[in-house]
Design goal:
With 126 residues, the protein is an alpha+beta fold. It has 4 helices and 4 strands; from the N terminus they run ααααββββ.
């Protein structure tokens, strides 16, 4: 009869330990902003820079990655203003609505923050 109680106590202790770990490693909004800027930078360099039309000139094509790198602070400001965090203590959900210019497409991203990591589970072009 003692074994079921021991197993129950161990299970409760394990769940409490996981909960405490999740709460302690729930990433902050500033950590998400750094993550989002890094991902945006990677996307711009790999997808956008390679597709710059020649009509914009050879200069822009050659220097696109440098322009992206020098725009980190502006991108962080845009991400900061476009992001809402829902903090659930154990994890957070971040919703970012990027819309820079009415002439350009806008995007909506949803990201889960848990255990000091981020997992973008939705990225939609609006």
């Amino acid at each position: 009869m003692k074994n079921p109680h021991i197993i129950t106590y161990l299970g409760v202790a394990a769940l409490a330990g996981i909960g405490i770990t999740m709460a302690a490693t729930n990433p902050s909004l500033s950590a998400y902003e750094a993550y989002a800027v890094q991902r945006l930078t990677e996307y711009l360099k790999s997808d956008v820079c390679s597709q710059v039309p020649e009509a914009f000139g050879d200069f822009l094509q050659r220097n696109c990655a440098k322009i992206v790198d020098s725009s980190q602070e502006q991108m962080r400001l845009i991400v900061t203003q476009a992001t809402q965090q829902q903090n659930f203590i154990l994890f957070s959900i971040y919703r970012t609505n990027l819309s820079v210019n009415p002439l350009l497409p806008s995007y909506q991203f949803e990201t889960l923050g848990v255990f000091n990591n981020f997992y973008t589970y939705s990225a939609e072009r609006q």
